[in-house]
Design a protein that fits this description.
The protein is an alpha/beta fold. The protein has two domains: 120 residues, Response regulator (Rossmann fold, 3-Layer(aba) Sandwich), CATH 3.40.50.2300; 98 residues, Arc Repressor Mutant, subunit A, CATH 1.10.10.10. Helices cover 42% and strands 21% of the residues. The N and C termini lie far apart (43 Å).
Length: 226
């Protein structure tokens, strides 16, 4: 069974999430704070993390940053603050989805399933490696490299890059990228996909690369990657 790590300092909320996921057939682990979450992750890496933003000692954004240094595990943020800026920040640092408290346990389960289905699709064996110039994405191992140097991307960031690599030179609108790369089935705002594109660009910029081109008023496309 897929295993989900639930990270929240509220034991009642952890119970709600755990019961909902257990009824849906998921195994779960729990942590009440950031250090506990990282310790649990290191001991038994889960298939997905449900992560509260506001945690004692080490908040959820710091936990996410720590995980993203070595893992592309899907991360579903939970927050009591319904603020678009907070949602964008959560996505920009590597989160894959964001839910506002209070939430429907059934909707949470549905989003977890979407994230895991996407992860399963991305890890399914495939016979090809997508490449364009010095950029390469191995669809079997999800290893992204630029000129041989590996770059760690989150699940949604991989979706963005995979979409652009599937048709080099083609311009994808924001809506198309959202539909193909974003892991939930509702659009938060146009800024959502922009945030993921900025993160991908920033990671490549560290290597002196700029693989994504913006066409104002139209969308994004893969650049020459030469």
């Amino acid at each position: 069974m897929p295993r989900v790590l639930i990270v929240d300092d509220d034991p009642a909320l952890r119970d709600v999430v755990r019961i909902a996921l257990a009824r849906a057939g998921f195994d779960t682990d729990e942590a009440a704070d950031g250090p506990g979450a990282l310790k649990s992750f290191a001991a038994a890496p889960p298939d997905l993390v449900v992560l509260d933003v506001m945690l004692p000692e080490m908040d959820g954004t710091d936990v996410c940053r720590a995980l993203r240094r070595h893992s592309a595990v899907p991360i579903l943020f939970l927050s009591s603050r319904d603020d678009e800026v907070d949602r964008i920040v959560g996505l920009e640092i590597g989160g894959d989805d964001y839910m506002i408290k209070p939430f429907s346990p059934r909707e949470l389960v549905a989003r977890v399933r979407v994230l895991l289905r996407r992860g399963a699709a991305e890890t399914a064996p495939q016979a090809t490696v997508l490449s364009h110039g010095r950029l390469s994405l191995d669809l079997e191992t999800l290893r992204v490299t630029w000129d041989g140097t590996e770059i760690m991307l989150s699940a949604t960031e991989l979706g963005v890059l995979r979409t652009l690599l599937s048709r080099p030179g083609r311009v994808f609108s924001r809506d198309e990228l959202m539909d193909r790369a974003y892991v939930t089935e509702r659009v938060v705002s146009d800024c959502t996909i922009d945030s993921h594109v900025r993160r991908v660009r920033a990671k490549f910029a560290a290597l002196g690369a700029e693989p994504i081109e913006t066409l104002a008023g139209f969308g994004y496309r893969l650049s020459g990657c030469g």
